[in-house]
Amino acid sequence: MNIKYLNLVVIFFAFAKVSFAQTSAFTTKDVIGTYTNDYRKALITNPEVTSLPVQWQLILSPDGTFEYHNSRQLKGQPEEHWYARGQWTFKGKIVSFTNSPQDIDDKYTINLNGSKARFFKKSPRNNSPKTQPTYIQFFKSEYAITKSLKLHKTNE
User: Which residue of 1, 77, 91, 135 is most buried, as measured by CB atoms within 10 A?
Assistant: First the structure.
């Protein structure tokens, strides 16, 4: 009789562990959109500044492709632009980027192959009135400019 109870307890805890295992509440649909650096705050706090010297934009399309654009305007120099494109995937809270040789050409010179970014969004279970921005932050990249780069979602 004790073995039956022991088996019952083991089965109960195994079922409880499986049913309460955390999964990501976010889907690919949540990630799709345009992400930029949050330069608007700097423009509001300093009205003399009309633009910032460096800007980033990342577009994650529903078809699984991405486009990355980085530009800068240093004082006394012409404006410079860098581009990347390729495919992206989403698993858990991680956005992974890959490039194929066909994605690199004269315009799209940056290789983000193997780069990874974490997706941040207010949990749907969080009922607090506090607003939290949706953003992604790179944590792995061979391209030095994107390491630790934080981009806010602009089209929500």
Answer: 135
- For 150, other C-beta atoms within 10 Å of its C-beta total 16
Q: Sign of the CA dihedral 46, 73, 84, 146?
A: negative
pLDDT for 62-86, tens place per residue? 999 999 999 887 778 888 899 999 9
Please give the DSSP secondary-structure letter assigned to residue 113. Answer: T
What are the DSSP E strand ranges found in the chain? 33-36, 54-60, 65-72, 80-91, 94-98, 116-120, 135-140, 150-153
- The answer to whether residues 82 and 71 touch, using CB atoms and an 8 Å cutoff, is yes
Within 10 A of 20 (CB to CB), how many other CB atoms are there?
7
pLDDT in tens, 7-38: 555 565 555 444 444 455 788 899 999 999 85
Radius of gyration, CA atoms only, the chain: 22
